[in-house]
Amino acid sequence: MSAAYREKYGPWALVAGASEGIGAAFATELAKAGLDVVLVARRADPLETLATTLRQTFGVQVRVASIDLASPDLLEAVRFATAGLEIGLFVYNAAYSMIGPFLDQPLADKLRILDVNCRAPVILADELGRAMVGRGRGGIILMASLAGAQGSAFITTYAASKAFDLVLAEGLWDELRDRGVDVLGCRAGATRTPAYEKSKPAVESGPVMEPEAVAVEALAALGKRPSMVAGTFNGVAAFFMGRVMSRKRAVMTMGRAMRKMYR
What we know:
The chain is α/β, with parallel strands linked by helices. The chain has helices at residues 3-9, 21-32, 44-58, 74-81, 107-135, 156-176, 194-199, 211-221, 232-244, 247-261; strands spanning 12-16, 36-41, 62-66, 87-92, 138-145, 181-188, 227-229. It has a single domain (3-261), classed as NAD(P)-binding Rossmann-like Domain (Rossmann fold, 3-Layer(aba) Sandwich). It is built from ten helices and seven strands. A seven-stranded parallel beta sheet has the order 3-2-1-4-5-6-7, sandwiched between helices. The longest helix has 29 residues, at 107-135. It is globular, with a radius of gyration of 18 Å. The mean pLDDT is 95.
């Protein structure tokens, strides 16, 4: 990324869900480009470790904000963490998910999925997007998922929340593009994050991407289109699931894949 990237989306970027995986990869790529970074996630220790690495490696400023993104006072906490900063780029990577039959999962956990995956990005896009429009420049990236393209058994609530994120991003892209703010919905497939590894899939349904590759593709696509699919294999799969298969067939195909992975 060039100096123009920092001029367009700097001087500060805020990455929510930055403690590991794709979020940490976003923060690293942005620091490499010379942007100062606010790291937001619930766990403080991994954020502090990443912050030290970014400061020492790239010489950028880094703020750490240990915030529960499902918290009722999320907006106040983020305002406190970003006081005095000009946030030119907002990346929402945080996600909460569970695997298993819908009715076997506690209602409280399903509602937490909605708080983290839907409520929080709306709050932060509203807060940070207003300032970006006021300056006439900026960028927002919301991480969605291939799972959100159709009903997905065993991750039903998570998949629905990722459909929300994709539609939110695409709508904001159209609303804000004439006001100087670029918005992108990034649909990721299986990615080798700590969360993916902890889920212990019995089999892998296709190639598993590395977090760095997802972040690089998304940052390169920002400002060029409303949404994108990370990875060639995922792009082909999305095309067949969305354009070639019937809706019924796509839902059943996804369900079979999830049952095979987590039988």
